[in-house]
Amino acid sequence: MEVIPDRFRFIHSLKKMRRPKVGLILLIAALILACTAISKFTPDQKAEFEQEITKLNTPEKINQWLYLNFNYDYALYLRALYAPTEQSLWNDYMKWPIETYFDRRGVCHDAANLAGYALVKAGYEVKIVTAREKRFGSHTVCAFKREGKWWVCADTRYFLMINGPFNNIKEVALHIVKNEKDNLKEYFLTRRKGF
Predict the structure, then answer these.
(1) Are residues 172 and 152 in contact, defined by beta-carbon separation less than 8 angstroms?
(2) Could you give the number of structural domains in the chain?
(3) Residue 19 lies in a domain
(4) Taking the complete model, does pTM exceed 0.70, yes or no?
(5) In what side-by-side order are the strands of the sheet with 126-133?
(6) 96-124 burial, b if ≥16 CB within 10 A, otherwise e?
(7) Is residue 119 situated within a structural domain?
(8) Which domain holds residue 151?
(9) For residue range 154-189, what is the model confidence (pLDDT) as tens digits?
């Protein structure tokens, strides 16, 4: 019988050691990026943001705020258009709601994410919906539920309109691609950022 010296008894062999999961590594990296992005705001700025968000408690108020304050960032759009993966798009280009609020600029998913954050705080059921077109690209909107139907706000194409009602998320996706069934490549729920 082989005797294992005490100093080696509690060291696992390399074969038995588990490698960390890629998802865990990505989660840790995202948390570090989140802390960096949000830490640049002072406590007073964070308080101002939360106070303003409580005032944006309806889709109509959100659309009005976006119409008056939000500028579409075409340079960011072009950079995000060539993001190699959905993960890099989410990590590198999609802003946190507080960033969008203070920057007053972004692209469609930034407006949708800010609106979604405000609507969740106001008690709405929210989905951030992205639809990809076969010929052109993709577009993201904030869908919210009101009286059992889905409606769309924070659509950077129609800031002053609340579109709907829609029976399901697929109908929202068809609305995004202008109701051209042949043009809808795919649709999915985009991960929320910050809420």
Answers:
(1) yes
(2) 1
(3) no
(4) yes
(5) 163-166, 149-153, 138-146, 126-133, 184-189
(6) bbbbbbeeebbbbbbbbbbbbbbbbbbeb
(7) yes
(8) 42-189
(9) 999 988 899 999 999 999 999 999 887 788 888 989
